[in-house]
Design brief:
The complex is a heterodimer. Chain A is an all-alpha fold. Chain A contains five helices and no strands. The mean pLDDT of chain B is 91. Classes of the chains: A mainly alpha, B mainly beta.
């Protein structure tokens, strides 16, 4: 009888031990700690800052960044909800939203770099604009001068071709 | 003949200006206007009216916070919400210093130049207790997040009310300095905690 009781207690103890190990593993895998959530929200904050600097540089180079700002605002919305979740103690949601925010912000960062490169390439072709502008203006003035000469001759010819008429 | 000459002169001038315009754009830069940002609060109907004034615990209040960017380029803003009692000092516009109280809630946004945006700010008071002349505000829920404030507001015998302030400060991202710097803009809502609490 005593042996049975001891076996039962040992079985219970081992069962409890196994349960605790699984529970702690589950917590590590599925749950998020407050420190981790704080760190991820901090990463999201940094990612937003980096992305904005890249967008500003692209804008400074002359790129149209309206689309990037829309995406940055979406990332900012995710950041806000991550902060609210962190404040409410919902660490898993905070980590998830912060991760989404980092993904979106990093995408914007990459695209801003591409847009900046394109804008700089376009700006490097300023001499084409000047050449087109100057040559175009010269050709226009030349054509106008030719037309002017033609019109003047025609007018002069018609005046010279008139026969004087004496009246009275 | 004189008419034709005038027409040619006008057409010639217009044509030359048209062709020269892209080159002129590279050389001539128009003067930049004053750079500034707007910060304002509107009532629940997006109008400068019906602001919450007499407030009590457990009731949700809605206002809109508007920010306008006229800085000449895109900007990254954060408006920060703080809760002040009547004796707490407001930000100093002359010294450009912000309120020393901790930020409760922050909302960030990116605005293009000349863009204005209005966002919702909902708030309600929690754990409000009143003794004879003192009202203690335990917490504040702002846009769904709950914050411990633990501020006491005294009865004001001159204006017959228990006044406090919901302060909104505007901060601007500046990568070369600290991430966000106070932009010397703030607005506040004066609130009177009523007996309904």
């Amino acid at each position: 009888m005593l042996r049975c009781c001891v076996r039962f207690l040992v079985f219970c103890f081992l069962g409890l031990l196994v349960l605790m190990v699984f529970a702690s593993l589950g917590f590590v895998v599925w749950g998020s700690t407050g420190d981790e959530a704080v760190a991820r929200v901090g990463e999201a904050d940094d990612a937003l800052g980096r992305a904005f600097v890249a967008v500003s540089e692209a804008e400074g180079a002359g790129a149209d960044v309206a689309g990037l700002l829309v995406r940055l605002n979406a990332a900012s919305g995710l950041y806000s909800s991550a902060e609210v979740a962190l404040q409410s103690g919902n660490y898993s949601l905070a980590v998830e939203r912060a991760g989404d925010c980092v993904g979106l912000a990093d995408g914007v960062l990459g695209d801003a770099g591409v847009l900046r490169g394109m804008a700089l390439d376009a700006a490097a072709g300023w001499w084409r604009v000047v050449v087109f502008s100057v040559v175009g203006a010269c050709v226009f003035v030349g054509v106008l001068a030719v037309v002017w000469v033609f019109v003047r001759r025609r007018c002069a010819g018609s005046v010279l071709g008139l026969k004087p008429e004496v009246t009275g | 003949m004189q008419n034709i000459k005038a027409v040619f002169a006008v057409v010639g001038l217009a044509g030359v200006l048209l062709f020269a315009w892209p080159s002129l754009g590279l050389i001539v830069h128009l003067p930049i206007g004053e750079r500034f940002s707007e910060l304002y609060i509107l009532g629940p109907g997006h109008m400068a009216s019906d602001y919450p004034f007499n407030v009590s615990a457990g009731v949700d209040y809605l206002v809109y916070v508007g920010v306008g960017n006229h800085m000449g380029s895109s900007a990254y803003y954060e408006w920060k919400v703080k809760y002040l009692n009547w004796t707490d000092s407001l930000p100093n516009s002359t010294a450009a210093t912000w309120s020393p109280l901790p930020r409760l809630y922050g909302y960030r946004m990116f605005l293009a130049d000349n863009e204005t945006r209005e966002d919702m700010l909902t708030f309600s008071f929690l754990n409000v207790t009143s003794t004879e002349n003192i009202t203690r505000v335990g917490g504040l829920t702002i846009n769904g997040a709950t914050y411990n404030v633990d501020r006491t507001c005294a009865w004001d015998p001159v204006y017959n009310g228990t006044y406090s302030r919901l302060l909104v400060e505007l901060w601007l991202y500046n990568a070369s300095l600290e991430p966000f710097v106070y932009h010397n803009r703030f607005v506040d809502l004066i609130l009177n905690m009523t007996a309904g609490s």
